[in-house]
Amino acid sequence: MAQILTSARFSVAPLTNEVDEPAAALWAKLRGDAEQAAAKDNWLRSFAHIAVLSHENFASALGGHLARKLGDWYITAERLADLTETAYAEDPGIVASAVADLSAIVARDPAADSLLTPFLYFKGFHALQWHRVAHWLWGQGRTELAHFLQSRVSEVFAVDIHPAVPVGRGVFIDHGTGVVIGETAVVGNDVSILQGVTLGGTGKEHGDRHPKVRDGVLLAVGAKVLGNIEIGRFAKVGAGSVVLKNVPPGATVAGVPAKVVGWSTSDQAPAVEMDMSLPEPEYAI
Q1: Please, what is the average pLDDT of the chain?
Q2: Whether the predicted pLDDT of 285 surpasses 50
Q3: Contacts 24+ apart (CB under 8 A), 2-6
Q4: Minimal CA–CA distance to 244: which of 209, 279, 214, 216?
Q5: Which pLDDT belongs to residue 19?
């Protein structure tokens, strides 16, 4: 199976200028990382070759690797690779988003010692890239196949994102386990989401019922954000918090239910700073 998922059978149409230069630069670095890993350990030579070095470009390597991760008896890895190839060719923005997402991981996560590590192993990254394909399918009206991908991603990566959800670029889902994002949620650009985060509804109501997370927001470990509310630009939600009301831009909220406990004093987005700490209280009980 690995033979048929290398670049010999997987090529994509030329990408737009929006994608070409960033993807080419990242691809050169990723290949270098793969070559170093293969040289260090003979056990990884075949893996590095199949996953990276046999491919002609980043899109080819990404599609093949994702397909091998998700393929099963119902839809094989080969057919899933065909699906990603079509999605990337028809919407090169999916690849541009993947480039931004992978770059964001390396910039924000000290555990990402190279591009190769998150590309090969980080299931939050893998789940998000499959979601981007599922979201493309959703927009094409192919909702049943989109739901199939959502289900498989949930089974394999423990990340459950409804395929209707639009997700911006430069998004980092750290660890991924237990992340749930409901149908009418929105996730902006440069957002960081840690494990156990829920963007959910408050009951069984229909219609627009899930949170809207704006650019630069940090959702810390175990945060539960519920209802058709807005988490404003550059806001931070503390670990274990339950958010039931709108959060103003730049605010830090924490607690159950969450309340404003501080305000951003930095020009850098909390999602980029990745600082989970909270302000010291002004009083003690």
Answers
A1: 92
A2: no
A3: 2/50, 2/68, 4/78, 5/50, 5/64, 5/67, 5/68, 5/77, 5/78, 5/81, 6/50, 6/54, 6/55, 6/64
A4: 209
A5: 57
Residue type, 101: D
- Residue 34 is predicted with a pLDDT of 97
Give yes or no for residue 14 having a pLDDT over 50. Answer: no
d(CA 180, CA 203): 15
168 CA to centre of own chain:
9
Alpha carbon distance, N-terminus to C-terminus of the chain: 63
What confidence category does residue 16 fall into, taking pLDDT thresholds of 50, 70 and 90? very low
Distance CA 209, CA 207 (A): 6
Q: Nearest Cα to 145, choosing from 43, 89, 75, 233?
A: 75
Q: What 3-state DSSP class applies to 178?
A: coil
Domains of the chain as residue ranges with CATH: 2-158 (1.10.3130.10), 178-273 (2.160.10.10)
Place of tokens 């830090």: 252
